[in-house]
Amino acid sequence: QVQLVESGGGLVQPGGSLRLSCAASGVTFSRYVLRWYRQAPGKERELVAHISITGGSTSYADSVKGRFTISRDNDKNMVYLQMNTLKPEDTAVYYCNALRPIGNIDYWGQGTQVTVSS
After folding, report:
1. Smallest Cα–Cα separation from 60: which of 35, 27, 77?
2. Residue 34: what pLDDT?
3. If DSSP codes are grouped into helix, strand and coil, which group holds residue 30?
4. Contact present, 50 and 68 (Cβ < 8 Å)
5. Residue 76, CB half-sphere, CA atoms under 13 Å: how many?
6. Given this model, what pLDDT does residue 25 score?
7. How far apart are CA 89 and CA 9, in angstroms?
8. DSSP letters along 39-103, please?
9. What is the pLDDT along the chain (118 residues), one digit of tens a residue?
10. Residue 62 CA: distances (Å) to CA of 11, 53, 55, 65, 109
11. CB–CB of 49/68 below 8 Å?
12. Contacts of 115 (CB under 8 A, 6+ apart)
């Protein structure tokens, strides 16, 4: 049984930082492209960050470039999202996604709430 579990969300003031983590079980992370998505109330889910299988390539939504950093540890089956200089518009539920290119198989976590407010 595959499980992705996010953690690290919470309430933070504008300009603050949070580090999200996603732990996987039942899946070999090193075979998956990993992504972080977010969904704000009343909005569609959007792709925030992407990291390749080896970790050698990353990409980001324009809205978070220079502020967010995605990383992975295949030995620990973990993926992270370091979020700095947070803004109120970053408020959303953040989801971890693992996509296996071969077979187009993907898995989702349950999400973790990030609220940026003073």
Report:
1. 35
2. 96
3. helix
4. no
5. 9
6. 92
7. 15
8. E-TTS--EEEEEE-SSS--EEE-TTTTTTEEEEEETTTTEEEEEE-S--GGG-EEEEEEEEETTT
9. 889 999 999 999 999 999 999 999 998 888 999 999 999 999 999 999 999 999 999 999 999 999 999 999 999 999 999 999 999 999 999 999 999 988 889 999 999 999 999 9
10. 23, 22, 20, 5, 23
11. yes
12. 10, 11, 12, 91
Could you tell me if residue 63 is left (phi over 0), alpha (psi between -120 and 50 degrees) or otherwise beta?
Answer: alpha
Ramachandran region of residue 48, left (φ > 0), alpha (ψ -120 to 50) or beta? alpha
| Alpha carbons 48 and 35: distance in angstroms, whole number | 7
Strand-pairing partners, residue 99, are: 33, 106
Tokens for 67, please give them: 């502020």
